[in-house]
C-alpha cells in the first residue's frame, strides 16, 4: 500500500465477534476459525446472489455517480422539473459536475416585478442558484462555502412569461475545472462570468434541489434562509448536460420539452 491507497481485499483481516459482545472487544477469529470460515462462505454466497460484487472500496469517487459507475434514477441528458418541486436529493437530479450544462426556466413575472429563487441546488457549503435580484437574472456558484462566484444581468426581467437561462461551458481536462458562465433572457445574452474551479464530487449530503425557493441553508448570500421564494411563478425548469446543453438559439421549445417528457414514459 502506498500513499492513500487502500489494501487489497485479499489482504484484509477478518474478525469474528459473538452476538452477545455488543462492544466488539473480544475477537474470536483465532479461537473459532471454523465458525469464521462458515460465515465467510455464507457471505460470499449471499453477496453473489444479491449482486454485491464487485466490492468497491473507493472513497471520494463514490460520491459522484459518473465516477462510481453506479446506476442513477435519472437517465439521458435532460431533466424537466416543475414549479413546486422541492427537497430533491442530489442523486435524483442530473449530475452537472465536471461537464458543460445549462439550466433554463420559464417564469411569469407580475406587473410589480419579481424577486427570489427560481431553482437552487445545495446550500451554504456548496451548490448553485439561479434567481432574480432586484428583478435582474443572477447566477451564484457556491464553491464549497469558500467563495461565491456570481454572474448577473444588467436589466430587469420584464412583465410576462420569459425564459431565463444559464449556460456553463466547461473547460475540460479533468475534474473540478472551471468554465464560462453566460446568462440569457428569451435567447438574448444579458450577462456573463467566469468560474475558475468547481466542485468535482458532491455539493451536499443533506441539502437538496428546490424549484421556486432555496430551502435549508442558502446557496447565495444575496438572500436569507427564509423569504427567498420566487414572487412570480416558475412554470418549469429544464436541466441539460453535455451535448444537450448546446443550443444555438438558447431557447427551449414546447416540442423539445414534449420529447423529454415522452422519453420518460
Overview features:
265 residues; mainly beta; six-stranded antiparallel beta sheet; five-stranded antiparallel beta sheet; 3 helices; 12% helix; elongated
Task: Describe the overall structure.
This protein is mostly beta strands. It is 12% helix and 32% strand. The protein is built from three helices and eleven strands, in the order ααβββββββββββα. It has helices at residues 33-49, 65-68, 254-263; strands spanning 78-82, 101-109, 116-123, 126-133, 136-143, 147-152, 160-170, 177-185, 188-197, 209-211, 233-241. The strands form two sheets. It has a six-stranded antiparallel beta sheet, covered by helices on one side. It has a five-stranded antiparallel beta sheet with strand order 6-5-4-3-10, with no helix packed on it. A hairpin with a 3-residue loop joins strand 5 and strand 6 (147-152). It is elongated and about 80 Å long. The relative contact order is 0.19. The model has no long low-confidence stretch (mean pLDDT 92).
Work out the helicity level: 10-25%
Shape: elongated
End-to-end gap:
48 Å
Strand residue content: 25-35%
Question: Count of helices?
Answer: 3
Give, in order, the helices and strands: HHEEEEEEEEEEEH
Biggest pleated-sheet summary: 6 strands, antiparallel
Low-confidence stretches: none
Structural class of the helix and strand makeup? Answer: mainly beta
What is the strand tally? 11
Global mean pLDDT: 92
Please state how the strands of the largest beta sheet are arranged side by side: 1-11-2-7-8-9
Radius of gyration, CA atoms, in whole angstroms: 23 Å
